[in-house]
Amino acid sequence: MGMSDLSGAERHPNPVDLHVGARIRMRRKILGVSQERLAEDLGLTFQQIQKYERGANRVSASKLYEIAKSLQASVGYFFEGLETTVDGVSEPGEPFVHDFLMTSEGLELAAQFPRITRSKVRRRILELVRSMAEEEELGEDD
């Protein structure tokens, strides 16, 4: 593998690495743990945690095990929502999920939404968000 191959891999992280990173970030945020505190717990720098969460660096099996222990989650938690097919992983929507979880509002929504137990209310929220997104696409002003 030449140097050009490495820079290409750096620019386009593997979808699984993106997903696992986003799940680490989400779990950490839900628990209110800072990148610094997680890094300290794992004997890493917070920059390494940032790279894991962005999907820039791949998390090894042993490191994921330590992260799961530190964030009180199962190892499987970090793979939840990852669709697998017979030919491996196919996830066209994954970058959107990752981008969503990388925003503070997206994280807050992801953390708060499951607390709403009434399905009628959840559907109304979804309808509201959908209609607002459609307005944005049409370029309508408020």
Descriptive report:
With 142 residues, the chain is mostly helical. It is 63% helix and 3% strand. The protein contains 8 helices and 2 strands.
Which sequence of SSEs, written as H and E, runs from N to C?
A: HHHHHEEHHH
Our count of helices gives 8
Q: How many strands appear in the DSSP assignment?
A: 2
The helix content is 55-70%
Report the C-alpha radius of gyration, rounded: 17 Å
Termini gap: 52 Å
Average pLDDT metric: 82
Structural class: mainly alpha
Question: How does the major sheet shape up?
Answer: 2 strands, antiparallel
What characteristic shape results from the CA principal axes?
Answer: globular
Name the features:
two-stranded antiparallel sheet, mainly alpha, globular, disordered N terminus
Outline of the structure:
This protein is mainly alpha-helical and 142 residues long. It contains 8 helices and 2 strands; from the N terminus they run H-H-H-H-H-E-E-H-H-H.
